[in-house]
Structure formats: C-alpha cells, structure tokens
Design brief:
By secondary structure, the protein is α+β, with helices and mostly antiparallel strands. Helices cover 33% and strands 29% of the residues. It has two domains: 107 residues; 251 residues, Neuraminidase (6 Propeller), CATH 2.120.10. It comes from Indicator maculatus (spotted honeyguide).
Amino acid sequence: MSPPLLKLGAVLSTMAMISNWMSQTLPSLVGLNTTRITTSDTLTQISPKEGWQVYSSAQDPDGRCICTVVAPEQNLCSRDAKSRQLRQLLEKVQNMSQSIEVLNLRTQRDFQYVLKMETQMKGLKAKFRQLEDDQKTLMTKHFQDLKEKMDELLPLIPVLEQYKTDAKLITQFKEEIRNLSTVLTGIQEEIGAYDYEELHQRVLSLETRLRDCMKKLTCGKLMKITGPITVKISGTRFGAWMTDPLASEKNNRVWYMDSYTNNKIVREYKSIADFVSGAESRTYNLPFKWAGTNHVVYNGSLYFNKYQSNIIIKYSFDTGRVLAQRSLEYAGFHNVYPYTWGGFSDIDLMADEIGLWAVYATNQNAGNIVISQLNQDTLEVLKSWSTGYPKRSAGESFMICGTLYVTNSHLTGAKVYYSYSTKTSTYEYTDIPFHNQYFHISMLDYNARDRALYAWNNGHQVLFNVTLFHVIKTEDDT
C-alpha cells in the first residue's frame, strides 16, 4: 500500500479507538453508577434494582461501537431520577451513533479522494523520471502537463481540511503539495534560463516600440469614463485637489484647496501616498482669497479666480509670489453664471494637451458658455469661442485635446451631455455616463499627464479613468 493509504488506515484505527472510548466512559458522562465492563459475551450478574448499567461493549466489523445495558425493575413513577438518566443516556447514545455514521460517510468519501490522489502522484513520479532522462526536451508541453496535474491536486486540500480527525495527516499532505510546487517553480526558472538573453532582448524591443507608438498618439475623442477610484475622504463638501500635468514623471506633488471661498491656504504633499496619509510637505498662504473650486496647477504655478472679481491670478509655488493677474473681460462672477451647484463657480480654469483655458459666461453671449485660450505667462486671451450651452445648466466641464465636455448635472445620474470642439468650432450632444458615487460633484478637471479626471465628490477626493479614441500618426502625415 502506498503512503497515503497507510495514513488513511491510521485514521480508521483512530475511529475504532474513539468508539471503544465512548463505550467505556459514556456512563460516567451521564452521571450513572458504573460497574465492571467486559469485552466478552459473559454476563456479569447485576441486580436490576441498581438502575441502568452498561455491562458489555464490543466493536462490529465496520468499527462501530455496540453497547449492551441491563434495565432496572419497572417503577410506577416514570419521572424519577433514573428515568431521566435513562432518557439522557439514550439521547447521548443516539447522538454519538449519528456522529459516528457521519464520520464514517466522510471517511469513505475522503478515501475515494485519496485513491485519486495516489493515482495522480504515481503519474507525477513517472513524469519526473522522464524529466531526469531528458531535461532539455521538457519545454512547453511537459511543463504544462505538470502544471495541470498540480491544478487537479490543489482542490483536494480543502476537502482534506474538512476531515479534522487526523490533523497531522492533512499537514503532511500540504507539505507534499508544497514541495511539489517548489520543484515545479524551480523547473520553470530553469527552463526560462535557457533563453533568458533572447527574452530580454525581445522585452527591450517591445518597450522601444511601445514608446514610439505612444509618441505618435494624437489627441483623442472621449469615448468612456470609468471609476471612480476613491483616493481619500477629507475636507468639507466642496473643494479642489490636483497635480501638475507638465511635471516630470518623478514629480508627483499634490495640491489641496478646501472650500469654495473665504480661504487662502493651499496644502502641498510630495506624493499621492503622502496625501492619503496626511503628511504635508508645505503650506502656502495666498495673497488673495479664491472663488469657486475651479483652480488649476500648470507648469509650477497656480491659476485661480480672485474672490468677488473676474480677475485671474497666476501664483508661483517656487517663489511664493504673484507672477501675473488679469481681468477676464465681460466674464460674470460671484454666482452670476455658476454651475448648477453654485459656489461662486462662474470662472473655470483648466488645462489640457494644448494649453491653458478659461470657461465662463457673459451677458453678451446671453449667459451661454464662452471658451477662451489663455497665454500661460501673461493671462492674455489668445482666442475665444462662444457656445450655445447655458452655463447655469451645466453641472461641470473639462477640456480634453481642445474639446470642451459639459455634464448636465452635479448630482446622481449626471453624464457628459454636450461637447464643443475648438478645432472645428462645432458642437454635438453626447451621452457618456459616469458613476457619481457620492452624489455631489463640485470639481471635475482633466489631467493630460495622468489621462484621468480629478474630482471632488461630496468630501471625497476621487479619480476617473477616461478612454479616448486615438488616431496614430503615420510617416506620411504632416
């Protein structure tokens, strides 16, 4: 018999010992007087007046416990102490018998699994002998066969876990499976070592080709928004958080501006991880209070709307000084043309792959959205586009590749409903849903470096992933 079957025999022997133990100790468990127990068929004379007594126990061929008892003389009172003891004894014997039957069924079932495992392990042994004869011809097919055999063995572990009678046997099985896994891992590493240099060169080539392909990606059209990913829960119901889309890959600073008014404090964090843990690296005290939540950090400077005005401020984080400020002509401010949620969100500053933008509304355009491209140094308006979408009906908006995308609400059920291309000066109505998980969005801005939307959603700082339809430049494109 193979080792697994020997171990199962040990388990069945253990069950037999449990049965003998029950027959010898059961009377004392229920509180009855005991008498001398024999394992033969000889009857020990016991006076029936002494109460119910277990006088004999034996084990049938299947390993089940058989107990024989002597009944006392009948008593007219069925509720005396000995009657109660009898009922308790019968209940316990019945429960024990049922438990043994269940255990027996589990043993038979597990026995079948172990037989299957023995066959599979014999197959593995033959495979390993084949590997020893010719390792270099192993490669894909033989290794895959071994992995499939291992996949068949692994599900047997939870089955064996149910069988709690012999924990040591289960531990040994686990150790054998673990050893086999280690051997297979070593084989996998050995196989990989044969063509390591070739694989390394292929990876480098693929990486180069991917980088070249990314460089050819032109601006794309928004097709889908997924998420959100909740980064942190902090601050009031309204606010803004952002990173610099023009920063290097190693520069991942985060800026955090709580509330939409009556505040001048900007908090800086060196990374997203520090932002999540709350480890501030620096705090800036701006010279003016801001209005709204639609600020943007671009090329190391903060652009924001000065409170109770249509003036745009450019503030340098490096020098701690205002580098430029300019009035945005005819732009409404202080809740004249805000987004649907209010909060002095009249002027929305944003950036994309093309540059710096301001989105606002004017009386001259009947309160509809105006898009202006700004000079990042002087804040001068380079060009403007007048749309037909009412600013007060927009939930939020953001720019991607020179196209403005407008949501129809800041509440549950919001979707990207309208888009305007500054390249073609045309608009279209869209239907791009996204999950407003926390029911109230007060800031939504696109970051071209991360290809993601940063949002402030009812005191939650979240990220949305965007899917763009890209056009790849060819060598013939000019």
